């Protein structure tokens, strides 16, 4: 066998994993509507399965078939108390949005999650839900899971969220649908708006004015058939991979480009990435396109302010691009990274440091000094730290240097079950 190792360029077309955020909401809204709803092209990652199981436990018929989820629900009035604890696994979105829904239903529920979820802050939703009248208790006064919810009898509130969080906004809007009066939620910057876009599609009216969303209680969900686009957060790994591996050109088909999610495209383009959006269209109220990305030299990036919520989940992948960009990249205003599946400032930098990259840690971000000629060391073991996006980001380095191994890649099943297979397919230059 030859000892010469060539970096395999990435070539071809793939459809990346379906959108996790949209799939969660489609399962929830379909389960709250009486009748049959079909979700086509859903993500069947572990997190979404947690959402399915929650509604199954409450008496909804949720069937996972080939590339679809078929939901037959008795509707809100027919939901029953789950007999056992609801285990949301690793899923923050399931937990926060279900806290909103469970608060509105006249049922008693107990919820928990895995070792990572049980460390994540819940007061950001539990505090305003208590203000609406929800009886929620939990570990450390309600700051942490496990938690119990005795729902029903809510009153709408006006709430200014101190964080730009779609999970907080969505939890309160969902609770507001079951509350008396009107619920008004505003946030400091606009976070992803799938809830506001999808609720009208499922028959629930909402009013959006800038950074404020209002909903009137007493509305009913209607069953619908929904098609889920590809997840731009999953596409991000391939956007970075094709940008940094010389000779690459990749087409990512059917990717959601909701403007509240496309910060990764804006930043990569500012860095000099060669990205083309083709075939732009609207599918079930969400903008979608095919993305063509070609290898190009990159410059340093500056990420701060209102850009942060538009790419919060893509920062670990962007940190990989920063290693190969000319100059010092800086991420600020991103303290939220510290309360994701892991502290993503710490875990991102731990892997970069293991590779000898010059980094600085800030309270609300980090800096990476990149180099287009960066020669990765061989024989390094990186770690997912049990966090899917950290694992997939670290894995990108293995495309550029042999003997870079990432421990704990099994956690990618949370959002992208076939991630490594898709990369290998592009390395072989094959289309799907
Ligand atoms: C999500 C919102 C974001 C994001 C998460 C999914 C959602 O979290 O990081 O992966 O689907 O609403 P925050 O609301 O905590 O910012």
UniProtKB/TrEMBL annotation:
InterPro entries: Enolpyruvate_Tfrase_dom (IPR001986), Enolpyruvate_Tfrase_sf (IPR036968), EPSP_synthase (IPR006264), EPSP_synthase_CS (IPR023193), RNA3'P_cycl/enolpyr_Trfase_a/b (IPR013792). Phosphoenolpyruvate binds at residues 20, 92, 120, 167, 344, 389. Transmembrane segments: none annotated. Pathway: Metabolic intermediate biosynthesis; chorismate biosynthesis; chorismate from D-erythrose 4-phosphate and phosphoenolpyruvate: step 6/7. It catalyses: 3-phosphoshikimate + phosphoenolpyruvate = 5-O-(1-carboxyvinyl)-3-phosphoshikimate + phosphate. PROSITE patterns: EPSP_SYNTHASE_1, EPSP_SYNTHASE_2. 3-phosphoshikimate binds at residues 20-21, 25, 165, 167, 313, 340. Residues 10-421 form the Enolpyruvate transferase domain. It is found in: Cytoplasm. The active site is at residue 313. GO terms for biological process: amino acid biosynthetic process; aromatic amino acid family biosynthetic process; chorismate biosynthetic process. The keyword Cytoplasm applies. Keywords: Amino-acid biosynthesis, Aromatic amino acid biosynthesis, Cytoplasm, Transferase. Its EC number is 2.5.1.19. GO terms for cellular component: cytoplasm. It comes from the Bacteria. CDD domains: EPSP_synthase (cd01556). Its main location: cytoplasm. GO terms for molecular function: 3-phosphoshikimate 1-carboxyvinyltransferase activity. Catalyzes the transfer of the enolpyruvyl moiety of phosphoenolpyruvate (PEP) to the 5-hydroxyl of shikimate-3-phosphate (S3P) to produce enolpyruvyl shikimate-3-phosphate and inorganic phosphate. PANTHER family: AROM/DEHYDROQUINATE SYNTHASE (PTHR21090), PENTAFUNCTIONAL AROM POLYPEPTIDE (PTHR21090:SF5). HAMAP family: EPSP_synth (MF_00210). Belongs to the EPSP synthase family. This is 3-phosphoshikimate 1-carboxyvinyltransferase. It comes from Desulfurispirillum indicum (strain ATCC BAA-1389 / DSM 22839 / S5). The lineage of its organism: Bacteria, Pseudomonadati, Chrysiogenota, Chrysiogenia, Chrysiogenales. The gene is aroA.
């Amino acid at each position: 066998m030859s000892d010469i190792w060539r970096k395999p360029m990435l070539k071809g077309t793939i459809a990346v994993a379906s959108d996790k955020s949209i799939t969660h909401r489609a399962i929830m809204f379909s389960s709250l509507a009486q009748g049959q709803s079909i979700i086509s092209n859903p993500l069947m990652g572990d997190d979404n399965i947690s959402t399915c199981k929650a509604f199954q436990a409450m008496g909804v018929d949720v069937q996972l078939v080939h590339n679809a989820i078929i939901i037959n629900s008795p509707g809100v009035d027919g939901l029953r108390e789950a007999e056992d604890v609801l285990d949301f696994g690793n899923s923050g979105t399931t937990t926060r949005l279900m806290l909103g829904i469970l608060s509105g239903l006249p049922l008693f529920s107990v919820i928990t999650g895995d070792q990572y979820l049980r460390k994540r802050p819940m007061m950001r939703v539990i505090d305003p839900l208590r203000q609406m009248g929800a009886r929620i208790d939990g570990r450390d006064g309600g700051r942490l899971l496990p938690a119990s919810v005795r729902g029903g009898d809510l009153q709408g509130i006006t709430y200014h969220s101190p964080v730009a969080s779609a999970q907080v906004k969505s939890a309160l809007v969902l609770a507001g649908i079951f509350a008396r009066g009107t619920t008004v939620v505003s946030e400091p910057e606009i976070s992803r708006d799938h809830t506001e876009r999808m609720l009208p599609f499922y028959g629930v009216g909402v009013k959006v004015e800038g950074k404020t969303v209002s909903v009137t209680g007493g509305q009913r969900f209607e069953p619908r058939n929904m098609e889920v686009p590809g997840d731009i957060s999953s596409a991000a790994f391939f956007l970075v991979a094709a940008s940094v591996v010389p000779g690459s050109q990749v087409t990512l088909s059917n990717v959601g480009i909701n403007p509240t999610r496309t910060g990764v495209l804006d930043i990569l383009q500012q860095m000099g990435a060669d990205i083309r959006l083709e075939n732009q269209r609207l599918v079930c109220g969400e903008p979608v396109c095919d993305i063509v990305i070609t290898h190009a030299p990159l410059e340093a990036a500056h990420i701060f302010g209102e850009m942060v919520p538009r790419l919060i989940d893509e920062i670990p992948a962007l940190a990989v691009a920063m290693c190969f960009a000319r100059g010092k990249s800086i991420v600020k205003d991103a303290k939220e990274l510290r309360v994701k599946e892991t502290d993503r400032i710490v875990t991102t930098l731990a892997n970069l440091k293991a590779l000898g990259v010059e980094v600085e840690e800030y309270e609300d971000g980090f800096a990476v000094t990149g180099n287009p000629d960066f020669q990765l060391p061989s024989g390094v073991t990186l770690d997912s730290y049990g966090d899917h996006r950290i694992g997939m980001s670290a894995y990108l380095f293995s495309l550029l240097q042999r003997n870079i191994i990432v421990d704990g890649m099994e956690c990618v099943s949370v959002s992208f079950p076939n991630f490594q297979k898709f990369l290998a397919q592009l390395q072989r230059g094959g289309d799907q």
